[in-house]
Amino acid sequence: DVKVTQSSRYLVKRTGEKVFLECVQDMDHENMFWYRQDPGLGLRLIYFSYDVKMKEKGDIPEGYSVSREKKERFSLILESASTNQTSMYLCASSLHTGAGGYTFGSGTRLTVV
Amino acid sequence: GQNIDQPTEMTATEGAIVQINCTYQTSGFNGLFWYQQHAGEAPTFLSYNVLDGLEEKGRFSSFLSRSKGYSYLLLKELQMKDSASYLCQGAGNMLTFGGGTRLMVKP
Fold this sequence. Notes:
The complex is a heterodimer. In chain A, 0% of the residues lie in helices and 52% in strands. By secondary structure, chain A is mainly beta. In chain A, the strands form three sheets. In chain A, strands 2, 5, 6, 7, 10, 11 and 12 form a seven-stranded mixed β-sheet that branches. A three-stranded antiparallel β-sheet of chain A has the order 3-9-8, with no helix packed on it. In chain A, strand 10 and strand 11 (103-104) form a beta hairpin. Chain B contains no helices and ten strands. Chain A binds chain B through residues 33, 35, 40-45, 48, 58-59, 90, 98-107, and chain B through 30-31, 33, 35, 41-46, 48, 50, 87, 89, 91-92, 94-100.
């Protein structure tokens, strides 16, 4: 009964590598989001998308990009991973803009060494 | 933009009632969400308030006052499994989360 699936639970990458984090939802939701969560800083919005091929910057987009070629898939890309991008990354989706709760994926704990 | 504040930590006793507050300043406000997050897991949706008043769901209730920019989550008959972080989130132009309140339930 999994609704939002993130491709990896744990990931270790080297500094400078290009990293892809994948997220797929099977609820036909319009909206998808990428957050990172760090102790003491809470959840911070990186990017979001309200439609296919559409993307909007969140609060902390620097060093990241996203891709939404299909409605069900929203990918987060770290162009050149750095140690300060070590974090828990959470993908979420919601049905309508500004309403309805998010459904979160189980998260990807990324460590950049 | 949005600014959402909630206490960092709270402690309560099993069987008791606890109220977790959330205050916000926001433009384009379109409701407020509450989530529960256990350690190492993803947040799960608890409630959504868009109108003033109290919404009750079993042991959990959520209250909203739009004029005061204030919400709270009320947990009754606390159980040990309620130990978790509770996140409030504003819905509107930018979907911002508060920093989360870590609740510890003690026997």
